[in-house]
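In full, the data.
>
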Amino acid sequence: MKELGPIRTALFVPGNRPDRVDKAVSSGADVVIIDLEDAVPPSQKEQSRPKVREKIAAFRDREILVRVNAVGSGYLAGDLDQIIVDGLSCIIVPKVEGRADIREIDGYLGEAERRNGLEPGTVSVIPLIESARAVQNVFEILSERTEPRRLFTAAFGAADYTLDMGIEMTMEGTELHYPRSRIAVACRAAEVDPPLDTPFMIDVKDVEALKTDARRARQLGFQGKLCIHPIQIEPCHSVFSPTAEEIGHAERVIQAFEDAEVRGIGAIQLDGKFIDTPIVERSRRIVKLAAAIGSR
């Protein structure tokens, strides 16, 4: 399974609009998601697959993901048969609700990889958690171990989740606190990468509201956000990237702790604050994240 992270932004683009794929790739998003599900009407799904395949091949040196159609949709096997080519990093599968879905996806993927001359396990999987059942089962979903291993992380889809629950998405976002928390904890407990948050769709042009929403997700343990418009990329990058101050402080914490270790001291104070092993480990993660972002 290819290492994909960190993903601060994942920009959706319709699979039936190949011209938009070119623009999306140059948008600055960490990854581009070509969508074969909601963005493509049923009458155009089959004819869109070769276009998606061509774009994956054309941008094989970039991080291209594809949102395929759901298990049970009648389109999934055909999607995978056409799009599993060299250059595809990962698929996003909507409406995953249980471990059986992961096993079925793995079976389809393995067959498609063999038919298209790829090593088994080349393509990883991000299940979309977007229903009450999926939220309830998210740890079981992420704990399903295939051979080779495919699960990279999970992503949250709030539009379908709130529809399923019969509730409204609000600017305050209190209705999403529980599913976000459960998804983030499940990712950590299942030892997969931190999840991707739902797109902000209430007002695409309200950048400050987007940043507030993204901060909520980051506080709960999300690594980034799904995006539906290029205007959302830079604000999300700013939220999900450590600041220069955070990086500088983290480096000072690490240096002070390592100096203390040499002197046989296990816990120290820095700027009047107590520093112990968990704080040092968090500082190391901040520095590692900053280095990974800087290498993109």
